[in-house]
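Input (structure):
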């Protein structure tokens, strides 16, 4: 697995072994960051279900200012730290070991609001995303608690292309969905309550 663009393009990242982590493919990461383009310049990024850290590290390589990585598995957190150190990005990164669904992992007002939130949970968690599912409640919390900037911030959810994603939400809108093989990326922007 490699960084797909920016100043660290081509640098090799350590990937977790086994099946507990499914890294985002290079093809999907390249497509994602091509779509994001200049939005990455100076962005504060939150990478939930970070796995190897490839998404957040690619964002940093392409111009993001900082990234908080959230991962539950202790050994995978250690791997993320090694990948960060291999790129010399320690001062721009924060690795948090914890459940991405926990309010203590990305509390409102703590290093936020983030400009970009990348969410790549196990695909089984995204089979059905509605306001009452765990992923749906997480999405709502990101906007309601000010973890992601409104209205300028963006949330990107990676999921299986067969996932059923509710189209209507109270606090954000789905602005786009792109599909690459079996993987889809759904882009969400906040609804400004003052408008």
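Output (sequence):
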């Amino acid at each position: 697995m490699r960084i797909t663009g920016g100043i660290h393009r081509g640098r090799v990242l350590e990937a977790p072994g086994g099946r507990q982590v499914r890294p985002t493919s290079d093809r999907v990461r390249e497509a994602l960051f091509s779509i994001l383009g200049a939005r990455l310049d100076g962005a504060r990024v939150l990478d939930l279900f970070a796995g190897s850290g490839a998404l957040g590290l690619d964002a940093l390589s392409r111009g993001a200012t900082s990234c908080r990585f959230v991962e539950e598995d202790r050994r995978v957190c250690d791997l993320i730290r090694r990948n960060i150190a291999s790129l010399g990005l320690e001062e721009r990164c924060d690795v948090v070991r914890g459940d991405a669904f926990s309010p203590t992992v990305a509390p409102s007002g703590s290093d936020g609001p983030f400009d970009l939130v990348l969410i790549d949970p196990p695909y089984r968690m995204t089979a059905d995303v509605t306001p009452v599912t765990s992923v749906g409640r997480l999405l709502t919390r990101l906007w309601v608690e000010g973890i992601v900037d409104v209205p300028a911030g963006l949330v990107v959810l990676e999921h299986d292309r067969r996932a059923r994603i509710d189209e209507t939400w109270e606090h954000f809108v789905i602005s786009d969905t792109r599909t690459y093989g079996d993987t889809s990326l759904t882009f969400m922007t906040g609804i400004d309550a003052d408008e």
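Notes: The CA atoms of residues 49 and 121 lie 5 Å apart. The chain has a mean pLDDT of 90.
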